[in-house]
Amino acid sequence: MGAIYILWLRELKRYVRSRVQIAASLAQPCLYLFAFGFGFGAVFRQSGRGSYLQFMAPGVIAMTVLFSAVFSGIAMLWDRQFGFLKETLVAPVSRLQIMIGRTLGGATVAIIQGTIVLGVCLLAGFRPQSWVALPGAFLFLFLIALVFAALGTALGSAIKDMQGFQIVMNFLVMPIYFLSGALFPLDNQKMGMRIANQIDPLSYGVDGLRGMLTNVWHFTPSTNLTVLTVVAGAFLLLGAYLFSKIEV
Amino acid sequence: MISVRNLVRRFGDFTAVKEISFDVAQGEIFAFLGPNGAGKSTTIKMLTTLLRPTSGSIQLDGMDPNVHQKEARQRFGIVFKDPSLDQEQTAWENMELHGILYHVPRKVRATRIEFLLKTFELWDRKDSLVKTFSGGMKRRLEIARGLLHTPKILFLDEPTLGLDPQSRNQLWTHVKALNETEKTTVFLTTHYMDEAEKIAHRIAIMDHGAIIAQGTSAELKQQTSTDSLEAAFLALTGSSLRDESADAKAGLRQMAQMWRR
User: Fold this and answer.
1) Superfamily, domain B2-259
2) Cβ neighbours of B50 (radius 10 Å)
């Protein structure tokens, strides 16, 4: 238990201490929120769907959690490079504990980032359907963070250099974001797009978050919960397996 | 304390370590010397559970590190060739983290951390982030950390790499003092012959994966009829250069230097 706690705490400390990173990682969601939110707002309203800000705010919050969670896992590249990873891998604790501590730390940081962006959305004029729905929204925030922090750990264990990191960002994380319905509605889409949506685990997170916050659902709440829980379990297993295979 | 018999490690067709055998007694300082690529680091990795031997046996304090992995890890401390500190945490936090990972009880932890940081002259910088430390300070902190859980064996893989003579001298003084007071067995590798000559009780010279000579510094000099350890070393290993191939990690290191992280 001690090992999980101290490694979780380490992720948190690193986050709180790197103010530049906090600012930089919040700039991107804000850019999406303001550029897209105001840019597409008029078109969205004309098509009779109401406020685009109301629609995309949950998507941008989900994006923040996605990027932050995956990135924390891939930050393992730095630990590998600076050797700190080795210090934990020769310690007399199981690798599973180390992996869980790191992953939970990354997920916690992602939830904090998501919460801050939720605050930014509120400042920009976003209003949830009711404040009572917030705990439900945080449940989905937590699941998204867990799914992608576990994926990040798996990727961080498998990737060995910065080129790999670029490939993952461009060909995995960005598609996960764009195909999730974070920026556009999922209904009335063509077949190919629908299939892509349904494969993308983030779709269920975005839908759960949006459903809780604005009461607009594409899937059902129970589908969202089930899919996210199953995928989180699968990614945690994958992460644990790949992490156990790391050679120092 | 350490007993190795016919240890072999192959990577595909390449044999990095060939049938080596040696013993290190309790409280002894044992130096492993050899040119680049001789197999020293591979041997240390096998001794410290990071790499499985292809064949042969290892006993650390009477136990096989590959069978009783956790128990073995609890019994040794290691300072790697590359730094392994968390740069974004303070000296104290690095020690504390190590203490928790190695199950050092809370009360013992605090006093032991204080004792070691004072011994290694880092106490007044305990709350500074490690990234603000000089190379010598980082090295000292790593050794202090490796000793935190009172290991029976301390592995030092080229601990003085890149340090100035003052830091090197000071570092060995501390290691020697702890070897005498706590009876810690020390297993080290280095490229500096004068260091090995000064501090090691016994020396093994490794080349092309095999141990080609072992004994005290005097014995090695006598065996090669030379008057310095360096001359003995060159007589044994020849004077041709060894090239190590760059791996993915070296590339990454270069990348990070460019990014200044």
Assistant:
1) P-loop containing nucleotide triphosphate hydrolases (3.40.50.300)
2) 18
What residues form DSSP beta bridges with B19? none
* Residue indicated by tokens 């937590």: A142
Q: How far apart are CA A82 and CA B138, in angstroms?
A: 12
Indicate the pTM of the whole model: 0.86
In what side-by-side order are the strands of the sheet with B76-79? Answer: B76-79, B153-157, B185-189, B29-33, B202-207, B210-215
- Contacting A with CB below 8 Å, chain B residues are 45, 48-51, 69-71, 73-74, 78, 80, 82-89, 93, 96-98, 100-103, 248-249, 251-253, 255-256, 261
Closest Cα partner for B252 from A30, A222, A78, A106?
Answer: A78
A34-85 confidence digits (pLDDT tens) = 888 888 888 888 888 888 889 999 999 999 999 999 998 888 888 888 889 9
Q: What is the pLDDT of residues A199-232, one digit of tens each?
A: 999 999 999 999 999 988 999 999 999 999 999 9
Q: Is the ipTM of this complex over 0.95?
A: no
Instruction: Return the residue of A nearest to B254 by Cα.
Output: A81
Q: How far apart are CA B47 and CA B43, in angstroms?
A: 6
Give one DSSP letter per residue of A159-225, joined into a string.
Answer: --SHHHHHHHIIIIIHHHHHTTTSSS--TT--HHHHHHHHH-HHHHHHHHHHHHHH---SS-HHHHH
Instruction: Identify all chain B residues contacting A248, using CB atoms and an 8 Å cutoff.
Output: 45, 50
| CA atoms of A133 and A131, how far apart (whole Å) | 5
What are the tokens at B55?
A: 């064949």
pLDDT above 80 for B252: no
* B12, two tokens: 């595909």
- Asked if A84 lies within 8 A of B256 by C-beta distance, the reply is no
Contact predicate A147/A233, CB 8 Å: no
Q: For CA atoms B27, B31, B226, B39, give the dihedral sign.
A: positive
CB contact under 8 A, A10 and B89: yes
Contact residues for B122 (Cβ-Cβ < 8 A; gap 6+): B91, B137, B140, B141, B144
State which H helix or E strand residue B18 sits in.
strand B14-24
B70 contacts A92? CB cut-off 8 A: yes
**Mean pLDDT across chain B, nearest whole number?**
87
Whether residue B257 is predicted with pLDDT greater than 70 in this model: the reply is no
What single letter denotes the amino acid at residue A132?
V
Q: Which of B82, B88, B249 sits opposite A14 (nearest CB)?
A: B88
Q: Tokens 């859980």 appear where?
A: B149
Contacts of A78 in chain B (CB under 8 A): 256, 261
Q: Over 60: is that where the pLDDT of B261 sits?
A: no
From B73, B84, B97, residue closest to A6, measured CB to CB? B97
